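Hi V.,

You were right to ask for the full record rather than a summary. Here it is.
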Amino acid sequence: MKAHGLRWTKDDKFAYILLEYLEGDELWYHLSEEFATHYKKTFLNPDRQNVAVQVISAVAHMHKHKWRHGDIKPENVLLTSSGYPKVTDFGLAKVNEAKEVTGTGDLLGTPQYMSPESLGGIYDVRSEVYAVGLTIFEMLTGQTAIQGRTTAEVIRNAGSGVNTSPRKFNA
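Predicted structure:
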């Protein structure tokens, strides 16, 4: 996703990133049964592998420029009409030097895609790589790696890391 610059509100209290407009669908939709039913096709493994490589490349590019996204997940990857993935939703993006998630202990991000360390308040580049891995796990298996019936159960399960082999699933 192209960034057209960093801007500040008139009162200089808030910064925002001006991003390009994109048309397409979120990656999670391409992984859904609704997509397969509506378009009478599935998101094939070679396509999934290409998207995985492109997402890794995009995140590596952000890290090279000292940024981290803060909420990598299939809902934050948009597939353009040509099938090219773009990482979106930079609402939690930060400069790499800042490690603490929040000063108040609030949980920022999506628990199913958070590393055990980030649940404890530390989110760094390694946490982001973990989130990319969880996203790729879901792309290749069709299932989230960390599951639970409630948010509390997801957080408990995420705290112990991924304990499910991708071989358990047929995607």
